[in-house]
Amino acid sequence: MSRGHSTQQVRQRGNIRIVVLALVVALVVGGWFAVGSISQSLREQGAVSVRNAILDSAKQCCAIEGSYPASLEHLQRDYGLRVNSQDYLITYEVFAENIMPSVVVVPR
Fold it and tell me: Rounded to an integer, what distance in angstroms lies between the CA atom of residue 9 and that of residue 2?
């Protein structure tokens, strides 16, 4: 039995390999972008959760003490607030003790 392949069969196999390789590369690149998108979404959701936790602690402080806390450190020290400062950049600004502070949380 001789295994003679025509030139056309060899080209078809070569074309099939190229198409399969292109599909594999496209899947890998698509997966890479999907993971990046999901990761970004999770960081943004985490930032919203951190902001809500800070505001909830500030409201609790206001209810107990009669005024909003002057600093984020006050909430961390006296109200048990824990914030991951390595993953999030937090801006806590107080205008007056009877006005809710401005809190901005941005993923790093």
Answer: 15
